[in-house]
What we know:
Protein name: Superoxide dismutase
Distance between the termini: 33 Å
CATH architecture of the largest domain: 3-Layer(bab) Sandwich
Keywords: Manganese, Metal-binding, Mitochondrion, Oxidoreductase
Oligomer: single chain
Strand content: 5-15%
Binding site for Mn(2+): 57, 105, 194, 198
Domain Manganese/iron superoxide dismutase N-terminal: 32-112
Shape: globular
Radius of gyration: 18 Å
Number of domains: 2
Helix content: 40-55%
CATH superfamily of the largest domain: Iron/manganese superoxide dismutase, C-terminal domain
Cofactor: Mn(2+)
CATH topology of the largest domain: minor pseudopilin epsh fold
CATH class of the largest domain: Alpha Beta
Amino acid sequence: MALRVIFTKKLLRSGFHPQPTSQIVLSRGLQTFSLPDLSYDYGALEPAISGEIMQLHHQKHHQAYVTNYNKALEQLHEAISKGDSATVAKLQSAIKFDGGGHINHSIFWKNLTPISEGGGEPPKGSLGWAIDTDFGSLDALVKKISTEGAALQGSGWVWLALDKELKKLVVETTPNQDPLVTKGASLVPLLGIDVWEHAYYLQYKNVRPDYLKNIWKVINWKYANEIYEKESS
């Protein structure tokens, strides 16, 4: 039971805050998660991201992480109640992978918004100033994130984060579905870009740099700024 509580606290520190449609549901004392709704239609991010990709990404891939995460939590709950330490240890990789997939995608959907609703508009306010201070310019930051995302071997994520300990913005990458918190407890995700093939392959084939070039047209800098102002105050 203690392990589940610790992991839930890590979810919150990672920047994942459940919304009404993805609230933690209590059933027989077990915490489970549900797929969050999107605040826009699947086709609303076109032409940067196709509606087909968004639907598959959300309904199939994210849903699979949620389903498998809940299954692993249920097995963990059962193993702990039985004192089965071997099974508890065995389940940690599934919890990290599927729980991380849920955390990361829940952030990713909020990092995107249609052009008609401000997608791609440069960050304003304190985040804009911080980007200029820590990276020189928004263009320099975009280039750094795109370059590191394109260079990431295999599957994973590239992040813009606030390091609360250093009080500065940093760019980090994480492999597979590792959430940003695995790189340091002081890191708060402001912007995460999925560079798994399922995020772009149907539209951009195997040309990840093209995907990373066009996704900036629908980035929700307003949301990133809101998180930055909240966490840096």
